[in-house]
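Re-run with default settings, no changes from the original entry. Doing this only to confirm the output is reproducible before filing.
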Amino acid sequence: MGAMRLCFLLLCLFLAGVSSLRKLNNIHDLKNITYAKSAPRHGLQLLFWFAQNIVTVDQNKILILDSNFDLNRGDFGFHHYGNREDILPSLSSWQSYYSVGNLRSPGANALPAYVRKYYRNTNVPERNMDRLIISVKQNRPNKILSVFITAHDLNKNEFNPSDTYEIDPALLLQIGDPYNCTVDESNVSGIYTIPRNTEDREYDRCLQFLTETGYSSSDCKHSPISRRKKRSPYLQCNAYEGIKLELKATTEGFSKLLWEIPAEIMKNSKYVYIEICQNTRSSETTEVHTQVRERLDIYDSSGASDTSVSMNAGLQPRLRLYPSLFDFQFTNPYIWYGPEFDGANRVIPVRIKGFDASLQLYTEDGKACARLYIKKTFSNWNKVFSHSWVGFYKSSQDKNDAYSTYQYAEKFSKIEYYITHNYDIYQYSSSLAIARGVQIRFLLDKKYDKILAQTTPWEGAKALTILPSDCGTQSQAKLSSNVPEFFYGPEYNDVGLQLYTEDGKACARLYIKKTFTDWKDLFYYSWVGFYTSSHEKNDDYYTYYYIVKFEKMEEIAHENYDIYQYKSKLDIVPGVQIRFLKDKSSDNVLVKTEPWKNG
């Protein structure tokens, strides 16, 4: 009996510990905790990156991962987390935790420079103690159940419960981009396309976010130089702010160095130069070997210079600063490590529509290369893709038959040294020099009209489709609140459904992305149901209409979408809703609109 009481008491203490996790609902909550508030901690930067680039929040506050994102592929260093410390709620057998933020992970090289900055330039334990953890359903890994931030207890090899918080979707929305787009009220389509943040703008936004939450970099300073080790300054925390080092591709596949160095640093340095280093990792150990490929003397605080070093994974610029002639001759310099190039330009693979496979553009020795990720359960891929090929294009504007070169998928070489439990990886190196604008496309057969995947142009800004509700403009209030609801999936491209009214009747509008050329085949049995209330069951519709019968609106022009619509006989009143159902059954709803509101 005593043992049972003890077990019951321990269980209660455990449940109390789990339930005591504080949920952060807004920026104010985040500001009022001590979590990762000073350099070299990276937890807030990690949270900002996640909200900006990886997750979206739908109308029901459900968190959705980017449609190309795959946790089991190790994107950005995500990996399974077993919750062995029991700091998070227990999950059912069909749910899993995944963690990101270990900057020693090879996949973490794809994280932005602002996340990894202090890790590169410090040697204190705090530089890699923060993590972000998500929980997902195993059968729907792109739907996030919850998000947590946590940190290692440096005195123990485990996470610290007192430094662990749950993140509310509302907070992720606050951290996300406040787009300042100009809304044209005559735009009847109701959707807008703007370039996604450039790297510089995202970095500036991150600095604003860190300032708003009370983050300080002033705690991260040089330790005194040990004169007993004149050849080794022993920098504990190198915190030169304002330095920017970056590598881009020239038109011939070589690296172009771009730099910005604050004038004060230049003024206080007798000699300044930048080395282009090639980092390689041993296949048997985590040891990194570095070879200096080129050295450039720097005389101006900012500039750009072409080099003779081919673009390769592991390239890294390193700034060397000598305060005096004595330091130049007798001691090591202060060194600022720039971001290490990851080979794929920090872009994850894009899904091959309709199949358990993905396509990625990367570079090796300055050439454009293609990588195929084939899920191991896709065992007959060679047969299915027997006529499939990857085309290499100098520009995303090139027509499908205007490729520079190509290779059949079945002729790609299998790579044995990549460690992936769920995927086999195949790759091919082309003769096309990597340069701005280069793109690769996966075509299903020998024809030119069946593109199943195409990558973001090299160094190109991603286009982002947004809704009027994302725009902080005065005209926003004049727009209909019934904006399109978009859905995504491995079999199809972006599709949006919108409820609108014409002559007092409920109408449906479909937005089909122009790259989604075979949508009629996939949606042959799909239909839109019209409901007088959002509480009605799926089979209690007032009326319905098949998707393939919607009328294309030629007079409504949009750069990325074709628009189709249908006018029903249902009177528009508050509460009316429309739903997109995948097939003839009534249980496969892909998306539904918000109920109609007054006005």
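Residues 18-210 form one domain. The two ends are 66 Å apart (CA to CA).
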